[in-house]
Specification:
This protein folds into two domains: about 25-100 and about 145-315 and about 360-480, Up-down Bundle (Outer membrane efflux proteins (OEP)), CATH 1.20.1600.10; about 105-145 and about 320-355, Outer membrane efflux proteins (OEP) (Single Sheet). It is built from eleven helices and four strands; from the N terminus they run H-H-H-E-E-H-H-H-H-H-E-E-H-H-H. It is about 60% helix and about 10% strand. Mean pLDDT is about 85; it is low at about 1-5.
Length: about 475
């Protein structure tokens, strides 16, 4: 190889190395979400502002079956598998983008049989045939010199998009774990409601026997018997609907954990108490939310990815430089077996450039488009932060107020039980009419049902706090 070709290669390589740091387009700066310093004090009464253990929050409910269901869900849920597939897609797109940083090398080959016209090859020409076989085999290479950072910005965008895909997977798990826990709590709540309904049926059956005996003795009218039958039938009618809802909730739980409906009947049939919230609950501070919520992190990463795309579009305003070369064996004589002789070698190399001088403003319009998409991504990020703050505040208010309601309902159940015992005794002695007994029995059933429902709602609202804080999102290492 002569001195001149070596000089060309050296200069091209020098320019390439000197311009690696030249990257057009805006550099990404993480936006300041400007969140408040603390949650509303009235809303967090009973909750600690200390850091929360969010990674495996469901273990604080102290229910082994729930822990097992969460693990099954992580392994078998199809929403998780879809999100993981999207991560793999993003990883492949990142590899495609990174592949532009290295040369493209292609093996080529061709065979052509052609007849040359007399206008190109007169009949008197000696040594050449009018009809020949043409053979070509070898390789060609090209390498775009990334002077303006188009490839680097594209890889940067792909890196951010891959990180966003991981956050989306974490978000699926955060929501999914909360859904499994909420449905599990609902199963236990429905079982408790059915138990209370069946206890009231037994109590009201005893009341019906009492009214029937007193009617036979001529002490009360037949109306008392009919009213007792009505009250009993109304209570009994609530049980089939509760059992229906229980089955449907179990089916939802089974599907969430990647199992066929009916698979968990045996495991769930054993009645267990409603999971009880822990005594101390840490919720951290609003600034923690930005680090914990995967939907916020995903929105921020997508903003970063889109900002890099502005640089990709801007690079097209400038000339594109490419190094190219080829090394071929070419022959127009003989057979294919004789092509690989030293005399049949041909080669070429050198730099080239292209520069779009006029394109009808397409490139600049594309830059403006990418900038507008980045603006949309920024506003989406800000909106996601606001909605996350709202989500946490609402869930904390709901938890605290439902705790108050549960405590009052507990008091009402105690009072209703004592009232039923007292009014039944008075009815036996003829000091009150049967309407008082009916009112107290109905009130007892309603208060017991409300109380146990409130207990389930308290735990559900706690789960919503953990979900709103981004609890349950594993690290990338744990996901992969």
């Amino acid at each position: 190889m002569g001195a001149a070709p070596r000089c060309v290669i050296f200069r091209a390589t020098l320019v390439f190395l000197m311009c690696q740091g030249c990257t057009v387009g805006p550099d990404y700066i993480r936006p300041d979400p400007a969140v408040p310093d603390a949650w509303r004090r009235k809303a967090v009464r009973g909750l600690r502002t200390a850091g929360a253990d969010l990674q495996t929050w469901w273990r604080r409910l102290d229910d082994p079956l729930l822990n097992d269901l969460i693990e099954r869900t992580r392994q078998a849920n199809f929403d998780v598998k879809q999100a993981l597939a999207r991560v793999m897609q993003s990883r492949s797109l990142r590899a495609i983008a990174a592949g532009e940083r290295v040369p493209d090398i292609d093996a080529v080959g061709s065979y052509t049989r052609a007849r040359i016209s007399e206008g190109i090859l007169p009949p008197a020409t000696g040594g050449l045939k009018r009809t020949e076989n043409f053979y070509t085999a070898g390789g060609i290479a090209s390498w775009e010199i990334d002077l303006w950072g188009r490839i680097r910005r594209n890889v940067e965008s792909a890196d951010y998009s891959l990180e966003a895909a991981f956050e989306d997977l974490r978000d699926v798990l955060v929501v999914l774990y909360a859904d499994v826990a909420i449905n599990y709590v609902q199963v236990r709540t429905l079982q408790a409601r059915i138990q209370f309904a069946e206890e009231n049926v037994k109590r009201q059956e005893a009341t019906l026997v009492l009214t029937a005996d007193r009617f036979k003795a001529g002490l009360v009218p037949q109306l008392d018997v009919r009213q007792a039958e009505l009250n009993l039938a109304r209570t009994e009618s609530s049980i089939p609907r509760l059992k229906q809802t229980l089955k449907q909730t179990a089916h939802r739980l089974e599907v969430l954990s990647g199992q066929n409906p009916g698979t968990l009947y045996e495991e769930l049939s054993e009645i267990r108490p409603i999971p009880k919230p822990p005594d101390d609950i840490g919720v951290g501070v609003p600034a923690d939310l930005i680090r914990q919520r995967p939907d916020i992190r995903s929105a921020e990463r997508r903003l970063a990815a889109q900002t890099a795309q502005i640089g990709v579009a801007t690079a097209l305003l400038y000339p594109q430089f490419t190094l190219f070369g080829d090394f071929l064996f070419e022959s127009a004589r003989g057979s294919l077996s004789g092509i690989f002789r030293a005399g049949n070698i041909s080669w070429s190399y050198g730099p080239s450039f292209s520069w779009n001088i006029f394109d009808g403003d397409r490139i600049r319009s594309n830059i403006r488009f990418e900038e507008a998409v980045a603006d949309e991504a920024y506003f989406d990020y800000r909106q996601t932060v606001l909605e996350a703050l709202e989500d946490v505040e609402n869930s904390m208010v709901a938890y605290v107020r439902e705790c108050d309601r549960r405590d009052k309902l507990h008091d009402s159940v105690v009072a209703a039980k004592e009232s039923v015992d007292l009014v039944t005794t008075l009815y036996r002695t003829g000091l009150v009419d049967f309407q008082n007994v009916l009112d107290m029995e109905r009130s007892l059933f309603e208060q017991q049902d409300e109380f146990v429902s409130s207990r389930g709602t308290v735990t559900t609202n706690l789960i919503n706090i953990y979900r709103a804080l981004g609890g349950g999102g594993p690290s990338q290492q744990e996901l992969m």
